[in-house]
Design brief:
The strands form two sheets. This protein has a five-stranded mixed β-sheet with strand order 4-3-5-7-6, sandwiched between helices. It has a two-stranded antiparallel ribbon with strand order 1-2. The chain has 14 helices and seven strands. It folds into three domains: 1-48, no CATH class; 65-158 and 172-198, no CATH class; 203-364, no CATH class. The protein is an alpha/beta fold. The radius of gyration is 29 Å and the shape is extended. Helix content is 47%, strand content 12%. It has helices at residues 3-6, 15-44, 50-60, 74-84, 88-98, 106-122, 136-151, 179-198, 203-218, 251-254, 278-281, 286-292, 294-301, 320-330, and strands at residues 152-159, 169-176, 240-242, 262-264, 312-316, 334-342, 357-364.
Amino acid sequence: MPVATRFFSNARLDLSDYQILAREAFICGSSVLVISGISDRLYFGVWTFPPYQFLNFNINQNLAVFYGRNDWHYYLSQGLPLLLTTYLPFTLVGIWSSTSLAASNIRSLLTTTVLVTLATLSLISHKEVRFIYPLLPILHILTAPAITSFFLTATTETNHPPRSPSALRQTEETTLHRKPLLAFLLFLNLTIAGFITLHHQRGVLTVLKYLRHEYELTAPLDENGGIISTPISNDTETFAAFLMPCHSTPWRSQLFYPGLKAWALTCEPPLHLAARTEEREAYRDEADRFYDDPLKFLKEEVNTRERPWPKYVVGFEGIESWLREYYEGQMKGFKVREKWRTGNSAWHDDWRRQGDVVVWEFVEG
């Protein structure tokens, strides 16, 4: 029996077994660290250790809070329900039943892994559902026995073959119960998946396809009729600006033409400010400053070398009144005109992201 397998059995482990495990852990772990270190050196250009940088950024410097703060129970009240949807009740039953198993049982070990991970991540102020995505396969394993026993019943029948009355033959039959409920849960999961995939927050992606198409219609062409693939000079007109909360759209990966200049509100963390100081607590990034006082931001921080007025402004519909008030008041003879609009989501917990996604342009009038 392999050494690792005996950890989950009643077989007694010898000292040599622990030595083998320690040796393999050292060899494999060292190999992974060396390969990772060389890869990071080639990519970043300097020697670095990303796990340390992650802990230093999130815990020591406590910079992750600038991307949001959450209650301690976030993963219990929101994270797991979003991750598991209709599986959640069965997962809770599976975790509860696993707590009564022997400590060496694999389900008990997986339950401990889930609980320790959730407890540890709950200590950090900034929380996101994606942080617990790696637990999903483990949660499915813990869910499987509970959901199987709820919908299926296995019965064993003993038969006596006619030609050999002394021989016994056992057959196992599985009976499916609660079919309407199972059908409803499957339908509900498919509905949620379809809605989230095809409709919810689709506008922040659709607008990028629109902008890319608009650029292709007016982009400079080479002698072969193709869009120029080399960077254009810095004097090129800025094509689009995103007056939206940062990370609202993946525009950098979608608007990939070198000649397509664009900018967006940023939310860079204050790396230059010491932790736990008044300056750090009072820090406001670009997106914060825009939504704190839109007219002041447009007056002082737009129409500069770094933030020139673009051909198109992209934003959620709620900023239109601010945009019109400033631009039409400052730029005499020009008006803000809606160029394109699409729906985005039926609801959103962030008031800044509510409503349609709109593209505006500036025209004489």
